[in-house]
Design brief:
Blueprint lengths: L8 E6 L4 H11 L10 E6 L5 H14 L4 E7 L2 H4 L5 E4 L15 H18 L5 E4 L4 H10 L9 E3 L2 H15 L6 E2 L2 E3 L7 E3 L4 E2 L2 E2 H5 L2 H13 L1 H9 L5 H16 L7 E6 L11 E9 L2 E4 L7 H23 L4
Parallel strand pairs: 1-2, 1-4, 2-3, 4-5, 5-6
Antiparallel strand pairs: 7-10, 8-9, 10-11, 12-13, 13-14
Helix pairs in contact: 1-10, 4-5, 5-11, 6-8
The protein binds 1,4-dihydronicotinamide adenine dinucleotide and oxaloacetate ion.
The site of oxaloacetate ion has 12 residues, from helix 9.
Enzyme class: oxidoreductase
Protein name: Malate dehydrogenase
InterPro entries: L-lactate/malate_DH, Lactate/malate_DH_C, Lactate/malate_DH_N, Lactate_DH/Glyco_Ohase_4_C, Malate_DH_AS, Malate_DH_type2, NAD(P)-bd_dom_sf
Length: 332
């Protein structure tokens, strides 16, 4: 990530006229990704019928007079919008409504990620990083990755940072610890109800989080389901899915990926499994990772007890089923 240090970072956002976009674009433009000294150029992709609304959003971006915003381009052709991009945030996809699981979106949204994977493959910058937020995020990332054979597989990730942030917030509320005191949180697996938010390796003020909590029933019956089903709870309360928090997590994930995770901490990112922790190879699975200048490494050597093993395997099995489904749909 060095050769563009001088010029603006070209950041593509898909689904830019959507709910997440309405929060994400203003954060990106205001320097939340790279700080006040690095300009960004926004490349905004939408479907044709949404371009007029997107023009309105761009008028508002103009009206903010952001010092860090070096330019904005909009359009409906991914080959034009992705041309030379260093970072692609793939947000555009249909959201779920009440009563749906994210996997129900596979067929509707899968096709988007074949076309966008192919377009990135042909026109993105050599150093491109691709973050997938649109659901079902892990398997959409698998589709985009598979359709972009010339881009190294480790340049693709799916967003589980929102789950990670939710887990920190829940743990903070339970223990009265500041969110800044909570480190080494892990989300394992799929961005779905089977995800496994793991407090057994987390720390609060340097102490083991599970020991600080000292309440296995709370961990099993409150913490894990609250984090795993938080998206559904937001849909129930708000009438539409989380948007500002999803945008915020998308920024957190991209920022840490490009600039590096903090010392003595790690982040959760869904990346291509290399078989670490017995996770089947090739699926896009959320692991604890450290990041450095646009690269990530899975944290190794964590001890996995039977409780964690069962949950890690269940979410892996769901991702294998999703991979099977998109294989049958001819998407990968
Ligand atoms: N991974 C995560 O943590 C989270 C993921 N999500 C997901 O993010 C996605 C977007 O959510 P919202 O912004 O709330 O939805 P939204 O419906 O408000 O916006 C989606 C936008 O994508 C656009 N779009 C559709 N097909 C496209 C294509 N082929 N190319 C470019 N743009 C396209 C639509 O025109 C629409 O403007 C959904 O799939 C949602 O489930 C939402 C919250 C958290
Ligand atoms: O729940 C949804 O459908 C939206 C989402 O991914 C989340 O809020 O985690």
């Amino acid at each position: 990530m060095s050769h563009h240090l001088s010029g603006p970072l070209k950041v593509a956002v898909t689904g830019a006229a959507g709910q997440i976009g309405y929060s994400l674009l203003f954060r990106l433009a205001s320097g939340a990704l790279l700080g006040p000294d690095r300009p960004v150029e926004l490349r905004l992709l939408e479907i044709e019928p949404a371009l007029k609304a997107l023009e309105g959003v761009v008028m508002e971006l103009d009206d903010c007079a952001f010092p860090t915003l070096a330019g904005v381009e909009i359009g409906a052709d991914p080959e034009k919008i992705f041309d030379g991009v260093n970072l692609a945030l793939l947000v555009g996809a249909r959201p779920r409504g009440p009563g749906m699981e994210r996997g129900d979106l596979l067929e509707a949204n899968g096709a988007i990620f074949t076309a966008q994977g192919k377009a990135l493959n042909s026109v993105a910058a050599d150093d491109v990083r691709v973050g997938v937020t649109g659901n079902p995020a892990n398997t959409n990332a698998l589709i985009a990755m598979t359709n972009a054979p010339d881009i190294p597989a480790e340049r693709f990730s799916a967003l589980t940072r929102l789950d990670h942030n939710r887990a920190i917030s829940q743990l903070s509320a339970k223990t009265d610890a500041a969110v800044t005191e909570i480190k080494k949180m892990t989300i394992w697996g799929n961005h779905s109800a089977t995800q496994y938010p793991d407090v057994f390796h987390a720390e609060i003020g340097g102490r083991n989080a599970a020991e600080v909590v000292d309440d296995q029933a709370w961990i099993e019956n409150d913490f894990i389901p609250t984090v795993a089903k938080r998206g559904a709870a937001i849909i129930e309360a708000r009438g539409s899915s989380s948007a500002a928090s999803a945008a915020s997590a998308t920024i957190d994930a991209a920022r840490d990926w490009l600039l590096g995770s903090a010392a003595n901490d790690w982040v959760s990112m869904a990346v291509k499994s290399d078989g670490s922790y017995g996770v089947p190879e090739g699926i896009i699975y959320s692991f604890p990772v450290t990041t450095h200048e646009g690269n990530w490494e899975i944290v190794q050597g964590l001890e996995i007890d039977d409780f964690s093993r069962g949950r890690m395997d269940a979410t892996a099995a769901e991702l294998e089923d999703e991979r099977q489904a998109v294989t049958e749909l001819g998407l990968i």
